[in-house]
């Protein structure tokens, strides 16, 4: 019996092997085993690299937790995330244990079946191995771009991600979270200044940086074209003061300063992306300067921005309608899932239409916060706020860690000392021309004025970050683009570490007060704030604040914004949300049938003593809207 028991498993194994060979029609070859081993090795290296970035994020989270209890004066967690990435990248590049990438030179002798100017997307390679060359098999290889001169280590190669991952996966939640967590009361109070810095300031910075770089490189007889320099000026003008804003929030600086820095950075990113796209289209239309191509690029910029804005706004309003006129709030999981999918589809829709998904998803987030948020159940409000804060936190820290790692693992770097030196000087000049002249112009008609210490802080807050890096790494096909990537990465690293570490000290030097006693300052912190529900808690719980009517009235000189605000309160919010007043209260009697159709039972049963106060828009006195609503409410009861 012992012999039978020992031979049984061996007999089954031999039988299984024989059956498998019979089914396949031929025995397994060494090539099959090597291919299987290659797949397993690739999977192992992929898992190792993902684990590496996961540990970097864990280390960053632990660092932030430590800094909550004991903050270092000249260090910030975002700068440390970059430093951690630099250390890991250096270890990967210079460690002794290498996993070389095998390669074979293919030089076709037969007439080619592909006749395009650009390289093909895939290469079908007939390969039989060294054992039996007569049994050829066809393998597909994808296009990766031009081969760098250095031989790649497979682990180092896998540590470098496809640039499209940044635009399609990492940037959308960052930009959407900026719009969704936007505290609109102070944003809209400073709307004129924010738009001036974001649109006019970014354009000025683009041409100042591009012009200075091109002028100096022309003296050095460089091969950089004017379009390359202008493109660099556009992408490097995208500011990302994430470290400065975090310190502002912790120290409770003046809300107007926070709103100016945050608002400029939010819109500035969108403008820089569209400007980069317009400049690239200008470069493809003209090799030099042509008036027609220049104006075509301007029209292209306006078209892309306006249509992306329209798509984002429409999708945000459509989500509000779906959540208002359905009972999705009875199923919070489905409600949250629809909210996330509608928001992400906005980005994909704009990209598929050859527009800018970043702009679309930004304004979608603003509309979702302004309208859809009011219709969500309490569970979905907490879920959506927390989810996008989490995605924003992980994405931003991943990108900053990756910037550090890629300095050593990305093979498409081009170190041009002259270009790097000129670029640092140019961005300082561009930031200067963006902040000070525009601030003085704004102060001619602005109340309150932007003080000189605020101007200095705005100048200092021009850090570069995720958007600039993502734009630079997206295309490294030419020598100039490689130099742009290297220079952009260095600028991001230096500004994040240096400016982020000196923010607290600069606030002290400039005499900017901290711990400002303002009932609304704490609402501006976008990181993991509790959400209040109920009347007056809309948009993060911002409600009317006593004593603000006089200061708010100063902003009502912006007549265009006041007209839009009244239109929004009277028609948009009653139509898109379940808040009071209803359309029955705000529309003429002749529109009563349509107004009743667009009014939900939930709206009619809202507590009329707590009507919607649109404090997030910074309207004048809190009494203006309730007075109108109370009169309209009596009319609605008569109907």
UniProtKB/TrEMBL annotation:
Residues 59-509 form the Cation/H+ exchanger transmembrane domain. The chain crosses the membrane at residues 49-67, 74-94, 165-182, 194-218, 224-248, 295-321, 356-374, 386-405, 417-442, 454-472, 484-503. One of its GO terms (cellular component) is plasma membrane. Residues 1-25 form the signal peptide. One of its GO terms (molecular function) is potassium:proton antiporter activity. Residues 525-551 are annotated as: Disordered. It is found in: Cell membrane; Recycling endosome membrane. Keywords: Antiport, Cell membrane, Endosome, Ion transport, Membrane, Signal, Sodium, Sodium transport, Transmembrane, Transmembrane helix, Transport. Its main location: membrane. Belongs to the monovalent cation:proton antiporter 1 (CPA1) transporter (TC 2.A.36) family. This is Sodium/hydrogen exchanger.
């Amino acid at each position: 019996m012992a012999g039978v028991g020992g031979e049984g498993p061996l007999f089954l194994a031999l039988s299984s092997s024989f059956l498998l060979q019979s089914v396949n029609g031929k025995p397994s070859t060494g090539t099959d085993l090597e291919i299987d081993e290659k797949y397993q090795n690739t999977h192992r290296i992929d898992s190792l690299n993902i684990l590496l970035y996961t540990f970097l994020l864990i280390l960053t989270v632990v660092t932030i937790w430590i800094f909550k209890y004991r903050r270092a004066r000249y260090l910030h967690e975002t700068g440390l995330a970059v430093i951690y990435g630099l250390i890991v990248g250096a270890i990967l590049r210079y460690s002794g244990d290498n996993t070389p990438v095998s390669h074979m030179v293919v030089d076709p002798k037969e007439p080619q079946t592909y006749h395009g100017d650009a390289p093909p997307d895939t290469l079908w390679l007939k390969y039989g191995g060294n054992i039996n060359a007569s049994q050829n098999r066809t393998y597909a290889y994808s296009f990766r771009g031009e081969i760098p001169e250095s031989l790649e280590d497979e682990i180092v190669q896998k540590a470098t991600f496809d640039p499209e991952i940044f635009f399609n996966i990492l940037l959308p939640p960052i930009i959407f979270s900026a719009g969704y967590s936007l505290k609109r009361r102070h944003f809209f109070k400073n709307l004129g200044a924010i738009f001036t810095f974001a649109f006019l300031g970014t354009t000025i910075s683009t041409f100042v940086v591009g012009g200075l770089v091109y002028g100096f490189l022309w003296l050095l007889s460089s091969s950089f074209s004017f379009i390359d320099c202008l493109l660099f000026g556009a992408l490097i003008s995208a500011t990302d003061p994430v470290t400065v804003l975090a310190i502002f929030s912790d120290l409770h600086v003046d809300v107007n300063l926070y709103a100016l820095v945050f608002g400029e950075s939010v819109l500035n990113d969108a403008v820089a992306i569209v400007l980069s796209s317009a400049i690239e289209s200008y470069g493809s239309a003209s090799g030099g300067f042509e008036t027609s191509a220049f104006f075509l690029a301007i029209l292209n910029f306006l078209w892309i921005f306006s249509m992306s804005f329209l798509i984002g706004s429409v999708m945000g309003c459509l989500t509000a309608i779906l959540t208002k006129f359905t009972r999705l709030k009875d199923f919070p999981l489905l409600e949250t899932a629809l909210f996330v999918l509608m928001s992400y589809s906005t980005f994909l829709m704009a990209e598929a239409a050859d527009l800018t998904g970043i702009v679309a998803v930004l304004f979608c987030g603003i509309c979702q916060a302004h309208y859809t948020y009011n219709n969500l159940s309490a569970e979905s409000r907490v879920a959506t706020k927390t989810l996008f804060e989490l995605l924003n936190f992980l994405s931003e820290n991943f990108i900053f860690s990756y910037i550090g790692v890629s300095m050593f693992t990305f093979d498409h770097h081009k170190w041009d000392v002259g270009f790097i030196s000129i670029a640092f000087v140019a961005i300082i000049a561009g930031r200067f021309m963006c902040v000070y002249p525009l601030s003085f112009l704004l102060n001619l008609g602005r109340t309150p004025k932007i003080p000189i210490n605020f101007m200095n802080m705005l100048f200092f807050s021009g850090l570069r970050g995720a958007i600039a890096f993502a734009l630079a790494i997206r295309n490294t096909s030419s020598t100039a683009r490689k130099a742009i990537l290297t220079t952009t990465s260095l600028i991001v690293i230096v500004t994040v570490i240096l400016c982020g570490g000196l923010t607290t000290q600069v606030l002290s030097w400039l005499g900017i007060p901290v711990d400002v006693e303002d009932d609304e300052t704490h609402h501006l912190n976008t990181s993991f704030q509790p959400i209040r529900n109920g009347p007056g808690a809309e948009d993060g719980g911002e409600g009317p604040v006593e004593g603000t009517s006089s200061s708010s009235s100063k902003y009502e000189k912006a007549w265009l914004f006041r007209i839009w605000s009244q239109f929004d309160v009277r028609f948009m919010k009653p139509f898109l949300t379940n808040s009071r007043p209803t359309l029955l209260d705000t529309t003429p009697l002749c529109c009563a049938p349509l107004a009743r159709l667009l009014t939900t039972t939930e709206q009619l049963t809202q507590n009329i003593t707590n009507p919607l106060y649109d404090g997030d828009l910074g309207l004048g006195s809190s009494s203006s809207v309730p007075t109108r609503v109370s009169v309209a409410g009596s009319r609605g009861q008569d109907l």
